[in-house]
Amino acid sequence: MPVSQVPPQESLWTRLDDVKRPRESYLEHKKFFPTKTLLRLIDEETVERELSRLPPDNPLARNAKQTAKRICDAEEPYQRIFAILTYIEKLYALNGFLEEEVTDKDLPLTKRKHDGKGTFDFVRNGTRLRCFGSFSDYYHRCFDQTQWKVLAPVFQRPKNGEVQHLELQEQAILPFEVEEEGPTGGYGSILKVRIHPEHHNFDTSEFAIKRLPSQDELEKKACEAELKMLSSFSDNSHPNLISVLAAYTHLGFFHLIFEWGEADLLKFWKEVKPNPIFNKDEVLWVAEQSKGLADGLLRVHQYGHGLPREQPKSEMSMVAVTDNSSASNPTIKITPSDSIEIPKNPSQITLYGRHGDIKPSNILWFKSTGMLVLTDFGLAEFHTILSRSGLPRTGLGVSPDYRPPEMDVDGGSVSRSYDIWSLGCVYLELIAWLLGGYKLVQQFKAERTPGANVVNGQKSAPFFELYLGGESAKVKGSVTNFIKVLHAHRNCSAYLHDFLDLIQTRMLLIESDPVLSDKRITCGELRNRLEGMRAKCDDDPKYASTPAPRS
């Protein structure tokens, strides 16, 4: 019903209370007034009508029409002030705000506490506001609580590669209508929310919010560097990289807002499509997504040059800690030795691109586009920066199943080729799913598990094993045998043979000796190879999906 048609007997207080959100919340301190609804409600006609209800001797009532125009002035509005005073039933005090020119632009008003009394005044530029002279301590608190209800933040899409970052005060009310705890990772946690449509201009309705500590100077600088890196991939600049929508800092935590993905890759295999039908369309989807993930990872690898390319493993110590983001896939965290140099100036922090934790749970499937999207890129370097501070709660989250052998081999080093190994592991499972569904993925993991190390009470299933007392590593025999099984599968096509050969001969390589060992394929080379194979699928339908098993 338009505001002009609302019956005069229905008070503005009633209508304000009716538009508060979220309606289903019993927590008053979490309720807010949607910004557009509020400003539509407080129009000149409504303001004039409410002022006319005041006693006739009140100057506001005598000059209702003129005052209403001033309240709704576009340059110096008082609409939020008017709404607050109406809601706390102190509208008769409005004249003092007008005389002192306390407008919406002054909100939130600053409090100056009285020593040892638990009471406060409102001040502007250090001077006590006289318009609160008739307010008791109770109404001071009422005004303070209500001003935050009209100030819920509005999140905006990135502009020109710049991602909005809001610094929110402690009392800020977030415009979330539904909140649901998501998985907790090795560093930070995920919250699934629905943001009120009047408080964002994104194209989706459900969001994932990643929360990271941001309490000391080093953490803050690391968060800023992380946001800078993520900003270069914002506004859907790459279809296979998660796009950060906005960021905010609140209650000592740094928050990143992303679109919510319906399932990670493991859930997609297990629940969304456990039994794929082998046909050309399915093969083309795998080819397109595999190429896209490699291209997205290349974008990450090309980012920045601020940190050393190699980090000797001797400078790290392994601590087994469970990452609850996947019960079947715990995380090993790397914590630094005391010998790692801490940057003297946190403002010099720069990230270089390396993912560091590629695994199915860090690849999301979006139903609306059918795309596989790489998430949490850059967080490995974020963790590395924080670990240099020596803080015990920080570290590099590494999935034991998909970690490369250099993490375990004595004297091994960690570089961007680390990601190539992990991606090769995921690709191998993706092919297993394509040929045999989730059941074959499970079978492959079971074959890798015997003899594996126990991490935090759970067996891991890496793709390699150590020998010579940990000085060397080799691809597990069960992995090599499984690749042969896939080659021999009745539906294995020429494209899949080429893909399996690429994984085995260029991705799952042991780089223990920097001089003698074969080097893994670079991300650029990988992207080019997969792009060529994808194009060949279009040019030659038989190449893509005609069965040609190897005996």
From TrEMBL:
<keyword id="KW-0418">Kinase</keyword>
<dbReference type="InterPro" id="IPR000719">
    <property type="entry name" value="Prot_kinase_dom"/>
</dbReference>
<protein>
    <submittedName>
        <fullName>Kinase-like domain-containing protein</fullName>
    </submittedName>
</protein>
<keyword id="KW-0808">Transferase</keyword>
<dbReference type="GO" id="GO:0004674">
    <property type="term" value="F:protein serine/threonine kinase activity"/>
</dbReference>
<dbReference type="InterPro" id="IPR011009">
    <property type="entry name" value="Kinase-like_dom_sf"/>
</dbReference>
<dbReference type="Pfam" id="PF00069">
    <property type="entry name" value="Pkinase"/>
</dbReference>
<feature type="domain" description="Protein kinase">
    <location>
        <begin position="176"/>
        <end position="500"/>
    </location>
</feature>
<dbReference type="GO" id="GO:0005524">
    <property type="term" value="F:ATP binding"/>
</dbReference>
